[in-house]
Amino acid sequence: MDVSIVIPARNEAGNIVVLVEKIHEAMDPGMDYEIIVVDDASDDTTVNIAKKIAADHPDFRLLINPANAGQSACVHSGVRAARGTLVCTLDGDGQNPPAELPKLLAPFFAGSGNEKLGLVAGQRVGRQDPVSKKVASRLANGLRSLVLKDNTRDTGCGLKAFRRDAFLELPYFNNMHRYLPALFKRANWRVVHVDVTHLPRLSGKSNYSNLQRGLVGIIDLLGVSWLIRRKKITDPKEFQTPSVPTPSVPTPKEPT
User: Fold this and answer.
1) Cβ distance 216 to 140 under 8 Å?
2) What is the fold of 3-229?
3) pTM for this one?
4) pLDDT tens profile 6-57
């Protein structure tokens, strides 16, 4: 399989059907892909709706968390279950337009020389969020960029594409999804950024508050900074045993 599209979702009953339809509209019909929704212990009808979608679409899979685990845990579970070589992620609230998925995948299929491309990260343009949320995000992104030097304007964007095997080699921790550019660079992978559009939430409300993000983000930032400073990744060359030439055996002469 080429691509797995992983969607963490909690209480997104009003969004999931439209989101899946738009993914099918956006993806190249010649590409082999699957959609994996990871439900994070929703207490609305998200799971029931997703089960109905699964009955109609063989390329749709549903994972259900028995208890709320958070976005990073959902993404990690979805990537582990994924069958694709490449993984795309987007949020389940409909604010990340599926029409942007081909833009994220394009650099991986741009030709030779992309062996070290590990991550294509979307950066939102024209965010459709309340002013308080945009201000808090700008402050957090500025502090993160200053500390980590990851050259990323917007790590909170859910639209990302990356190599599955490379992602699974990264250190896993809660909220790691907000630090993927820094973590991929730490592992010596190349990171590309693309601008993506942003839409108003289709239905429901956000599962996070600005205060909650801020308090947790400080601890995470210190932890990621420590990981980067403690980095010690080498590229050892395997010793090759010198080949011993086989001695030549003279051919016996025929008697005259």
Assistant:
1) no
2) Spore Coat Polysaccharide Biosynthesis Protein SpsA; Chain A (3.90.550)
3) 0.80
4) 999 999 999 999 999 999 999 998 999 999 999 999 999 999 999 999 999 9
